[in-house]
Design brief:
This protein is α/β, with parallel strands linked by helices and about 375 residues long. The strands form three sheets. It has a seven-stranded mixed beta sheet, with helices on both faces. A four-stranded antiparallel beta sheet has the order 10-11-14-13, with helices on one face. A three-stranded mixed beta sheet has the order 1-2-12, with helices on one face. Helix 4 packs parallel to helix 12 and helix 5 packs parallel to helix 6. The mean pLDDT is about 95.
Amino acid sequence: MLFSYLADELEDLETAGLRRHRRMLESPQGARIVVDGREYLSFCSNDYLGLANHPALIAAAQSAAARYGVGAGASHLVSGHSVLHHELETALAAFTGLPSALLFSTGYMANLGIVTALAGRDDEIFADKLNHASLNDAVLLSRAKFTRYPHLDFAALEKRLAASRAKRKLVLTDALFSMDGDIAPVPELLALCERHDALLVLDDAHGFGVLGAFGRGILEHFGIASERIVYMATLGKAAGVFGAFVAGPVELTDYLVQRARSYIYTTATPPLLSAALSASLQLIEKEAWRRDRLRELITALRQGLKLRRWRLMDSTTPIQPVIIGANQETLAVSEALCERGIWVPAIRPPTVPKGEARLRISLSAAHGIEDVAHLAAVLNELESAA
């Protein structure tokens, strides 16, 4: 058979506990969801603020669909750039406190567009080893020299920055690391970039909407601003909809319109999504109780878990990883949770380092304290029985 070698590789993945399977969601996102005909208490969504099924977002999308239709029909530079896209970009710039913002279809495409437009063969890019795959793939496509530094090891980063003779230097980092739940100390990174004349690209996919008093993300969290920062955030997680944006100086976004291939050569997102996102921004800013509830849930989970063999990672964010270690044991625990009506995903290599397979618990403002208490009790019981 032509593809028999693929079947062999799939079998190897299955044996190693690394084969992934899709499951069928039959309900909106929420604290409780229906998957393959069964209801689960869900701790596996990035819908951190519980906005993915909010009536105000649904109404905005429906109204926009009635007026502007469903599809954009073309790329932004042909005829697909709607007034709703423009209004959202203006709102995102104001929301983040940055001069300009540019919409992208996804965070993956935004990172590809940023890095390949700003760096090339004569340049060097420095990246945290735990960065998201989209940043790593972007560096490879840019053809710049790719230098990775150990996770949050700024002494190593400074040594490599000082030794570089590249024409341009870029430092890339997740702002909130999606698998560990820890936050990059951006002020220290910015100081390094200023000292060594490098741009700092921040991927705030998991911080936008969650961090900061008004949910404006990592920059508000630390109270910093700099023209040296290229800010990217996604709109399908805490914002509850879909898409991504890049924000920074006007010259940056204007340049990306001219040079970011993942922006130029793709159809614009449906305008109705921009309408829903404009409604989402208002809720993110005004409803601080959603972030307050997240903090309460985080505290409740960390106090409720009494693990002895498994390890709860040090995180103050809605991402609460429990390290189990072995792939098969992690899958077994995830399946045992499913049998009890709780959905927590098993995360395995290559997404995380070998030997650090984990349960990735994602909390949402849609959860109640009783939901978190139930999860903690079941996990404590499963570990005791293991």
